[in-house]
């Protein structure tokens, strides 16, 4: 990883440090899915640290079916224009040309996302080739490290987007954190075999074993619908949360958005979470994962 | 307090790269405490305001009753150090990223409150969006041993300073580090590098003050 200090006199853009450092600035915050400039403004006013610009929230992608692609550039421009906080946008897995377009549009972060229909069933995009940093989803440590090896500067546990059900987010975050804990207990001889089992580069595995954490920021995503859900993910070790359909598919988006921000900051204070949970109107209607057919599970996209 | 005692320095922990500031301050010889509530300001010898999203930090500070107590504490001389978003929060006046139709200096951001404390006008995201984020070496007055590695992320710059504010560093003709009395601010993030000299300068300021 090129985290060595720059000795150049001229400013250097797109370094690993500015890409990963950008995600460090988002820690403790909530990143919200938005589909219009108006929603982006509501998210910013509620205290979001960034917005994710997309054409349809995951719940609608599920409902409508069809191929889900990168958003319309006009829509992304409109959202960039509307807010001063960072704007992220999604590309399909392996669709590096969508990513090139998003970089050209000047988005602040690209989410190579399983929520969109994958464009390549073998390869993810080479994320080192970009100046714009990438966030990628992962269901376990090996997957997270493969994405980091490809250049991802931030990881989010996948969860199951568009369900309003936090169970998969919990499963994936616990999986990642648990595997990190196990690495901590291994000696140097065992790390080689661990790297083989994780199907991840040895250097990254060793780095995680030494740090006791990923070398990049770890957020949680996919199914967060309430302030308590957000606080749960923080208490389980997520450094921040993505909220997709949970806000703008609820009864009172502005109020729910602000409540989730409060509960994310004071994730360890049940009184604040209780207060934030009052009178929020209706939460999005959730989906039980066990009735979701395998083919409709987004988390199994990407590998 | 004796010069050798460990000063207790708070890190505003509403949002942002709190852990990195805690690590840098610890390395620079301070005892560190996160601050999210007004009562946690008691007994601090200094406070750092981390990098993060200044709009979010500002809203949370209002929501959780920190805005007024913090303003008062800074006014009464609590030493403070802000990086990036923290620099924005220390500005007496802030401007939108791009000059509006009224020209620079005429478009104050509506609704975003700051703690203030440094007589300066700051332009948010002045160096550009994430694709323009960069690293460059920066000479900082008061930091011995050569330039520091400046990590600038969607960074603000200081558009102008009042008579009592000392300019400590510039990059590309723009002010990126300032000091006014016991308040210090940088557009860049020393906490993201292994180099703790700017935090050492701040800890020294805190020690001198207490």
TrEMBL record, chain A:
Q: By its UniProt entry, which InterPro entries does this protein fall under?
A: Aldolase_TIM, PdxS/SNZ, PdxS/SNZ_N, RibuloseP-bd_barrel
In terms of PROSITE patterns, this protein maps to: PDXS_SNZ_1 (PS01235), PDXS_SNZ_2 (PS51129)
Pathway linked to the protein: Cofactor biosynthesis; pyridoxal 5'-phosphate biosynthesis
What are the alphabetically sorted keywords of the record?
Answer: Lyase, Pyridoxal phosphate, Schiff base
Pinpoint the PdxS/SNZ N-terminal domain residues.
Answer: 16-221
Chain positions recorded as D-glyceraldehyde 3-phosphate binding sites: 174
The source's superkingdom equals Bacteria
Q: What is its EC number?
A: 4.3.3.6
A GO term for molecular function: lyase activity
| Catalytic activities | aldehydo-D-ribose 5-phosphate + D-glyceraldehyde 3-phosphate + L-glutamine = pyridoxal 5'-phosphate + L-glutamate + phosphate + 3 H2O + H(+)
**Electron transport among keywords:** no
Q: Does the keyword Transcription regulation apply?
A: no
Q: Please describe what this protein does.
A: Catalyzes the formation of pyridoxal 5'-phosphate from ribose 5-phosphate (RBP), glyceraldehyde 3-phosphate (G3P) and ammonia. The ammonia is provided by the PdxT subunit. Can also use ribulose 5-phosphate and dihydroxyacetone phosphate as substrates, resulting from enzyme-catalyzed isomerization of RBP and G3P, respectively.
Recorded family membership: Belongs to the PdxS/SNZ family.
- Give the record's subunit note: In the presence of PdxT, forms a dodecamer of heterodimers.
Query: Do you know which PANTHER family this protein is assigned to?
Result: PYRIDOXAL 5'-PHOSPHATE SYNTHASE SUBUNIT SNZ1-RELATED
| Protein name according to UniProt | Pyridoxal 5'-phosphate synthase subunit PdxS
Q: Which gene encodes it?
A: pdxS
